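Record type: monomer structure entry
Structure origin: computed from sequence
Chain ID: A
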Amino acid sequence: MEESAKQNIKTKILTRVEIPGLDNIKNILAINDRIGKEMIEIRHCYQPLRTTIIDNKVVVFKESRKPEVYAKGELKEEINILYYIYDEEWIEWMQKVFWNLFRSSIPAQKRILDIETMKKIN
């Protein structure tokens, strides 16, 4: 991600900003500080999709299968399945979904501040 940011490629991320994984979010946001400009924007939103949209050309969905969900021995280890969608109508629809969620979500920095404030109160 840092190399992309250095090449002036903007990245927008919609994810859950929660206590588990908070350090990862902070590390990603720190890239902006290291390169001296905001190339990565993260917003908090609880949503079920694990999707990447690349250059209006492809949508990649990720699905994870965990052994504990299956009968004993049926699935030996976690597997990830990737679906690549190249259909223009699907890509356009996913972009609309993304932008709708992104616009209405909370900036990660605000969410981090809220979480850290709650930690101090407790």
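Annotation 1: The chain has two domains: 1-47, 48-88.
Annotation 2: The mean pLDDT is 93.
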